[in-house]
Every structure is written in structure tokens, then in C-alpha cells.
Please model this.
Amino acid sequence: MKEVAAPAGVGERTLYDAFPTKAALFGHTLGVTLAGDEEPVAVPDRPETLAIRDEPDPERAIGRAVDQTTDLLERAGDLIMGTVEAAGADPDMRASADAGAEATYGVHLALATALEERGALRPGLDAHTAADTLYALASPHMHQLLRRHRGWTRDAYRVWLRRVLVAELLGPH
Model:
């Protein structure tokens, strides 16, 4: 906490008053980084997330979801992966990683369900399997592999993810 307080220009005690534990500080930092601002609205409840689910054009909905996911992972992907990597050794990080994974799956399931209700999913694909596909392909793990390990550009990642998700999820149109 000392290494955080000094560059922030606050006393260590002040930091502890606001965030009693390192996990609380990390959770706040992750939340702000995920959302991109300090508004007290979770990503799944944000208007832009709801608009993706309500987008009538299935390809456009997937494209908007990919744009949002890419932007989020560019901001917060490394922090998310830090949570995942620390989860085995730290119960607070495990809880954070599990909560984040559950919230992410919920967003994917909402989109997949909306696509299924419109009859847009490819034949034989149900909403849960579509959500599983979104969850795997749009994961912070995949983002880290392609962007950080393989050096893909942001645009190459975004184009690939959109193309693969449209091919995997949507029926003929």
C-alpha cells in the first residue's frame, strides 16, 4: 500500500481508510478499469451493453459485442489475468476471478439468448452453447494469447474475433 500511496500523493493511512485491504483497492481499480470510468454502473448494466443485446441485426450485434469486449480487454485484460493467475494462492483473488467470470458469462448468455429468440443462431446451436463459445473465444485468456504472446494488433484481433464469432454463431442469412 505504501508503493501506491506515495505516487498518488496521499498518506498510507488515508489509503487504508478508503480501502481497508489490498484486495479492496485492487477490486476498485479493476472495476474502474473494466468500466472505463468511475460511474457506479456495472458493465452488464451499462446502456451500451444493453444496446448490444437489443441490436436487431445479428451481425451488427456481434460486431458491437466484439468492439466492446476488445476495448474492455485492452484496458483491463492484464488485470483480469493477474486475478486469474493469483486465484490459486489468494482467496480474495479467487472470489474476484469467479465473480468476474460469472458476470462475463451472464453478458454472453444474454446476447446468445437474444440471438436465439430472433432465430439468428445457426441450426442446432442453442443459447447456452453459443454463450459458451462467446465465453471461450472472447476470453481474457484468448486475448492475452493473441495480443500479448503472439503480438497481434488490436485491429487484427478484433477482425478475427468478429469473423470467427459470426461464423460460429449465426445461421445462414
Summary: Residues 56 and 102 are 25 Å apart (CA to CA).
